[in-house]
Amino acid sequence: MMNSNLLLTSIITLGLCATPDRSEAQSIQPRLQPNIVIMLADDLGIGDPSCYNAESKIPTPNMDRLAQEGLRFMDAHAPAAVCTPTRYGLLTGRYSWRSRLKSGVLWSGYAPALIEPDRTTIASMLKQHGYHTGCVGKWHLGFNWASYDGEPVTPKHFDQTNFEPTVERGPNSVGFDHSTIIPASLDMPPYVWLENGRAIELPTVYDPGSKRVWSGGDGFWREGLRSPSFKFNEVLPTITEKSVAYINARAKDGKPFFLYVPLASPHTPWVLNEPFREKSGAGVYGDFVHETDQAIGQILKALDRHGLAENTLVIVTSDNGSHWPIAQIEKYDHRANYIYRGQKADIYEGGHRVPMIVRWPGKIEPGAQTNALVGLNDFYATIAEIIGATIGTHEAEDSFSFLSVLQQGGSGTRKTIVHHSINGTFAVREGNWKLIEGLGSGGFTSPARVEPEEGGPKGQLFNLLDDPGEQVNLYLEHPEIVEQLTTLLNCSRNEDRTHTLHGDNKTACVGNGR
After folding, report:
1. Into how many domains does the chain fold?
2. Is 464 left (phi over 0), alpha (psi -120 to 50) or beta?
3. Phi then psi dihedrals of residue 452, to 5 deg
4. For helices 479-494 and 4-14, what crossing angle results, to 10°?
């Protein structure tokens, strides 16, 4: 158990929410230009790949192969326990709760663009440094659709959407040279493919939707407009095909490339293709995870086929934990979120602790694992350090480079991390200690919220070293740690991160009396 005095010393040394010195990364001159491929699964749990969970009921040979050839992160976390804020954080290096999205997700493909017009992304940064950039898969960060009446399109105003013009503020507006995407989750309308901002086929068919598999349906999706030829079971194969086509094209020009593949699976609807049925011991969900693993394998094979694997940094991870309730755990004896409490949307570890495998031949020791603390919002700073890019004052405010972990097997530069649930519940992690601000799961696991009783704990404090399953609330036993972590969380939320992270003041919170 961490000594509370050591914790206090750590917080003071860090200046509460100040980061380690990034001047070294900013001074490096461009020297490495590996290709970069990030595959972001949708709702894949850390207990699904057998390279993380020996008792997994799902065959995942391609992720297992990647783990043998690369580095497994055991303490990696999505910036939030649901998808939209994670995608925002991954691309911008900034927590989504600093944006207009303070909780939840964008609940429709009609939602306005979330990434601010002047905000840099990994794609725009790499493009400035000579990379060709591509995005293939599920976007779910909003657009500014054209409308027939001239008013902004919103989920409540979707009936005025004009699908014919090129959409504004999509992937091509934030640094991607090429994009082939669906607007949002595969269970959210409109069900349409967009290539470089244009609808390949206009959505003119009304789809009545479907129930979840465990409720007797074909796989959950919401009612709404669909393109006539759009088929739910063809989305994953299409993402795979278009990703491979992108790699084929890039192999011909010799220019370094960045391919971002935000997969739409194994998120609902669980819509299988016939060769993958009954291939797992975890029902239709497990079969869909297996099909997702095969898609990852096809993309890896494309790199191999063109001799690109040796100079390509590959990252496979997930946007949050699996949506795998207790009833499904008991039915299939499969723990999609492994030993961790909760599931997708929750503030508990099962909501945001995710698998993350990184392969970089010649730079990473194959078959290794690390306990370094990382967040997916750290991709920005890490990639910037790899290519020698300078991070500007208003860029990637919440991103920490883990390049030293990749190359030297160190503990990394991140010492604290903030977690966020679907209903806006916060948690903060420092070392082995995790403080949840409030009672309840903050998400899908009931109860989401619990009112504190008089004299009882007002929040939840766990020592993850002794209690990784978050079963023993130590909130009342360690008031000093609660106070310190509360101060750290408040500082992280309230501090002007731009000057704290990138300026010379490394003790801004202490200096401001916080």
Report:
1. 2
2. alpha
3. -65, 145
4. 20
Structural domain of 96: 32-408
Whether 7 is in a domain gets the answer: no
Helix 283-305 crosses helix 61-69 at what angle (to 10 degrees)?
A: 50
Judged against a pLDDT cut of 50, whether residue 2 lies above it is answered with no
Residue 347 above 50 pLDDT? yes
Q: Say if residue 355 is in the same domain as residue 448.
A: no
The answer to the question of residue 413 being in a domain is no
> Looking at residue 475, which CATH number applies to its domain?
3.30.1120.10
Residues 265 and 131 in one domain: yes
- Indicate the pairing of strand 132-138 with strand 257-262: parallel
Q: pTM of the entire structure?
A: 0.92
Same structural domain for residues 143 and 197? yes
Cα–Cα distances in angstroms (integers) from residue 399 to residues 20, 79, 379, 402, 446, in the given order: 11, 10, 7, 9, 32
Of 187-191, 288-292, 510-514, the least confident: 510-514
E strand map for 324-448 = 353-359, 368-375, 416-420, 426-430, 433-436
In angstroms, the CA 318 to CA 66 distance is 15
How far is 306 from 139, CA to CA, in rounded Å?
27
Q: Which of 296, 400, 314 is nearest to 19 (CA)?
A: 400
